[in-house]
Design brief:
Blueprint lengths: L2 H13 L10 H9 L12 H13 L14 H15 L4 H12 L4 H14 L11 H4 L7 H12 L4 E4 L14 H4 L2 H13 L15 H22 L47 H17 L1 E3 L5 E3 L5 H10 L7 H4 L2 H10 L25 H20 L5 H4 L4 E10 L8 E12 L1 H4 L10 E10 L2 E9 L3 E11 L10 H4 L4 E10 L2 E8 L6 E2 L5 H12 L16 E2 L12 E11 H4 L16 H4 L23 H4 L4 E10 L7
Parallel strand pairs: 1-6, 5-14, 11-12
Antiparallel strand pairs: 2-3, 4-7, 5-6, 7-10, 8-9, 8-13, 13-14
Bound molecules: CU2-O2 cluster.
């Protein structure tokens, strides 16, 4: 990486340190005095928006620094958008960064962080810059209160400490068995970043066209639910039941965490019922959902102008995703409401719906924390069922859409790289990961650094590779799509393909060139295009850049770096100690038919990282097939479905106590 980039990268890291306290770094504080947005109005796309933001600051109307920023709170969000537009509209890096420094100490820290992060992720001149992990910038919202308390103790006594963090709940709660998944910090980070890359409040006038954002909303959450169900089956729990507006929310949840200002995240007891909020009733939810269901049944949505838009095609899901989420792109937010977003708020406020007790927002009201609550998956199962209704009304793929004439998958093998590996048997285990708590307790002015970390247990798996032998009658370009599905349901019954298909987990999707005759494709698990590698911890990242500045190491500049993506550790579901049966599906399709434009070249796609669940940041998603193809539609006949370009093999996933020897 060059000096300009390194300078930007280190500036960002410095800016986000100790966000709850005023900046002390002298390199940055210099800007605080020397730069003023109002004196530089010609350096922004929209001077009015800059004036609006400065006006908010000066009038004292901005959310207090000690307040709790909630993205679903319309006022908080509007303020954040004004700051975002100011930062995003800055005409060059210099203006952008100086504005950020100006805003940092004047804005609520998490409100600032959100606006700054989204602006950074979308600015052309910030491509490749790495944000530190969310859970190390604002550790409070990710950590349990007891860990934070212990961290303070360690700080007071200046004792370097490693504090074990347990999953919330107790063994009396069966849901506890899958807490390792919902509470995984990497999963929460992936989810938070997905919503930063595809904000529901993203306006059409911002540039960057957010290709298939509504469909991605469906698919990323659909996969999260499918994965949660596979984890549940791995732990002898039945698949998650959808929430219904009129039924009890059976599972409670106690986050055991506190906001930076000391207020506790509310706990929800078992069997709560949805109730009306002052501005939103449960009846509204039924009404909006009824309209959405009517739209699906009739095969079209009605736009705000009264036009009918057909859903009976491959783009129908995109319209529906925007409507259900509901994003600014919804064709008719007044008529269809904000079903999914409002459900997050209803759940978050369910213990104090009349706002009588000043209870702060629940975990469901922040994308950074939502997946901790089992109700997150129940809500998204409900939402997913709405999408399923639509997909089930589309005609099943016929053979001509499934087959790839002349191409036959001869053999599929999955091989773990551990010493004791058996073919088609993969190993998962739990390992330990450290979270740096420097920003939870350190004071920015306190020079003496005490090493304080939390240690959490995380699901991981042995590295493995797929070996796929394909025979082709001619040299041709292809896309390999790999999926995994549990073989048996909770009752121990074999799952028929038409039921299993909705629960398949996407493991990988990548282009290949097939030669005339046999091609042996070898693909390692860590190349997966649904996952991202483990992010570096905050101090590690700082250290790497500082060393690169001194010329000691090279800091790899990757323009295509993504923060969104399932943590690679979670690629495989846990499985069982005695081994759990899965089916692995390999589908080879015709690259030239699938890609969105003839200009997409097989050789140009290697930079794509977490395309599967996170799409792309610029331009069009190269793979034009509906997400989840070919499992997204009904499969009336297994025999007709499995054309020669597909193959299914049995796979066993075994969870062991200790990391196997590589
Ligand atoms: Cu991601 Cu409900 O959209 O959490």
């Amino acid at each position: 990486a060059d000096g300009v980039f390194l300078n930007r990268q280190i500036s960002v890291l410095k800016l986000l340190q100790h966000l709850n306290q005023p900046l002390v770094d002298s390199d940055l504080t210099a800007y605080k005095e020397s730069f003023s947005p109002l004196n530089n109005l010609n350096r922004y796309r929209d001077a009015e928006v800059v004036k609006q933001y400065v006006g908010l600051v000066e009038s004292g109307k901005l959310l207090h620094r000690d307040g709790i920023f909630g993205l679903f709170n319309p006022e908080h969000r509007q303020q954040m958008i004004v700051l975002f537009e100011t930062l995003y509209g800055a005409s060059d890096w210099d203006t952008f960064f100086k504005t950020a420094v100006w805003a940092r100490d004047r804005t609520n820290p998490r409100q600032f962080l959100y606006a700054f992060s989204v602006a950074l992720l979308h600015r052309e001149d910030c491509r490749g810059i790495k944000l530190p992990p969310q859970y190390e910038i604002t550790p409070h919202v990710f950590l349990t209160t007891d860990v934070v308390r212990k961290a303070y103790q360690a700080k007071m006594t200046r004792t370097p400490t490693v504090i074990p963090m347990k999953f919330t709940g107790s063994a009396n709660n069966p849901e506890q068995r899958v807490a390792y998944f919902g509470e995984d910090i990497g999963l929460n980070s992936h989810h938070a970043h997905w919503h930063m890359d595809f904000p529901f409040w993203w306006k059409p006038e911002y540039d960057g066209d957010k290709d298939r954002k509504g469909e991605l909303f469906f698919y990323m959450h659909h996969q999260a639910v499918a994965r949660f169900d596979a984890e549940r089956l791995s732990n002898d729990l039945p698949v998650v039941q959808p929430l219904e507006w009129d039924k009890k929310i059976v599972e409670g949840f106690a986050p055991g965490a506190s906001y930076e200002n000391g207020q506790e995240f509310p706990m929800r007891p078992d069997n709560m019922q949805f109730s009306d909020l002052p501005w939103l009733t449960v009846q509204d939810m039924r009404l909006y959902e009824g309209r959405i269901r009517d739209a699906i049944a009739s095969g079209f949505v009605r736009t705000a102008e009264g036009k009918l838009v057909s859903l009976n095609n491959t783009v129908g899901i995109n319209y529906l995703g925007e409507v259900v989420e509901s994003s600014v792109h919804s064709v008719n937010p007044v008529f269809y409401g904000k079903l999914h977003n409002d459900a997050h708020v209803l759940l978050s406020k369910v213990t104090d719906p009349k706002l009588r007790y000043g209870v702060p927002p629940g975990v469901m009201e922040h994308f950074e924390t939502a997946t901790r609550d089992p109700a997150f998956f129940r809500l998204h199962k409900h939402v997913d069922n709405i999408f399923k209704l639509h997909k089930d009304l589309l005609p099943p793929y016929d053979v001509s859409e499934l087959e790839f004439p002349g191409v036959k998958v001869e053999a599929v093998k999955v091989i773990g790289t551990c010493k004791a590996s058996t073919p088609n048997q993969l190993i998962t285990y739990f390992d330990e990961s450290h979270i740096d708590l420097g920003n939870a307790v350190d004071t920015a002015t306190h020079k003496q650094v005490v090493d304080i970390k939390a240690v959490v247990s995380r699901l991981n798996h042995e590295p493995f590779k797929y070996v796929i032998t394909v025979n082709s009658k001619r040299p041709v370009n292809a896309i390999v799509r790999i999926f995994l599905a549990p073989k048996y349901d909770w009752f121990g019954q074999k799952v028929p393909l038409d039921a299993a298909r909705w629960g398949v987990i996407e493991l990988d999707r990548f282009p290949v060139k097939l030669v005339n005759g046999d091609t042996v494709i070898t693909r390692s698990s860590d190349q997966s295009t649904v996952t991202i590698p483990e992010p570096k911890s905050y101090p590690e990242l700082v250290n790497d850049v500082e060393r690169a500045v001194r010329g000691e190491v090279d800091f790899v500049y990757d323009k295509h770096h993504r923060h969104c993506g399932l943590p690679h550790r979670l690629l495989l579901p846990k499985g069982k100690p005695e081994g759990m049966d899965f089916k692995l599906y390999v589908v080879i399709s015709d690259f030239d038919k699938d890609v969105v434009s003839s200009e997409v070249n097989v050789d140009d796609l290697h930079h794509i990282s977490s395309l599967g669940y996170c799409g792309v940041l610029d331009g069009k998603i190269p793979d034009g097939k509906p997400m989840g193809f070919p499992f997204d539609r009904r499969i009336p006949s297994e025999e007709l479905f499995l054309t020669p370009n597909m193959k299914v093999v049995n796979l066993v996933i075994k969870n062991v106590r200790q990391k196997p020897v590589e």
